[in-house]
Structures are given as structure tokens and as C-alpha cells.
Amino acid sequence: MSRLLHISASPRGDRSASLTLARAFLDAYREAAPGRVVDTFDLWDGTLPAFGSPAAAAKMAVFAGEEPVGEQADAWQAARETFERFDSYDRYLFSVPMWNAGVPYILKQFIDVVSQPGMVFAFDPEQGYTGLLRGKKAAVVYTGAVYGEGRGPAFGNDFQRPFFEDWLRWAGITDVEAVEFRPNLVTADADAGRRTALARARDLGKAF
Can you tell me the distance from the alpha carbon of 126 to that of 93, in angstroms, rounded to the nearest whole number? Predict the structure, then answer.
């Protein structure tokens, strides 16, 4: 049976547009096949480990074929446990609000924690990287309050979706669907766009 993990990068709770769309997706997903496993990883819940000096040293030790020891081993184990939690699912829903033209720093932290050799990727000096997350699929909810396609550089640029989907592909996840909701909340009526995005989220959830 498929297992789905919703990874939330928004700290805004009920006020979050990305979480509202994620809930619509998940409701439709559950209705389409009751009994499937659905869990949530709130990246803001305090359980995501840091990836500082000991973890970075551990990563370089592993690259060199060495075994991390001491505090490096502890940091490596924390990263491995986070990866194993992530890897135990075959389907993912990511809710990703735009922050400063990119993704929230907590999502980048998650990426940096799990993107380790022998976990998310393999590396060959001649062939380069190979993503190891094969046979999985992802849906991503992208939201933003000011940026929108065609609005011009004064309204920002999109380093959110290109960055995140490049990471998914690099990690080996090539089956990716998306929902976008990018109203200009300062000057425009967002209701029509919200309805369209909710319908898209429900349709994806039913078919996922």
C-alpha cells in the first residue's frame, strides 16, 4: 500500500494558503482510497536536526570512505534518521510558500540534512551524481503573495519552483505534479485564482 508524507514548509497554520491547498489535496486523496497511510512532517515542529560543523565534517568523512566518530557520528546518525523517515514513504506532498523569491530556509535545511551520499544520491568521479530516490512521486503546492508570471522584475523573480524541482529531479524523483497559487494580494482580487488552485489540488489528490 502506498504511503504518503506531507512535508509542510509553512509556519502560518490556518492562515497559510499553501496549507489550505494541501488540505484540499489530502482530503481528495483520502476520499479516493480510504485507508491509505497519510502522515505529516511539519518542518517547524523542532524535530529537524541542524546541519552544522559536525554534520558537515561527517559528510566529508563519508565521502573519503571513513567512519564518522564522536559528535560527528551523532550528527550523522541524526541526518540518517531524518532521511530514513523521509525515505519510508513512496509519495510526497510538499507545501512550499515563496520566501524572498525562494523557498523557506527550513525547507533548505531539510534538503541539506537528507541530501547525503548513499542516501539521496550516489557520486562517481567520472559520471557525477545519481539520484537514489527512484520509484517515488511528488506533488508540490507553490504559493506566493506578490510574484507572478508576467508581472515584471519589480514584483520579484521565481527561484522557488526551479530550485525545488531541480532538487527533486537530482534526487531521482521525476514524477512531479504542481499546484500554483500566486495572486498579487496587494492589488488584485485573489478569489478566482484561489478557486482554480483549489480545484487543481482536489483533482491532483484524487488521481495521485
Answer: 34
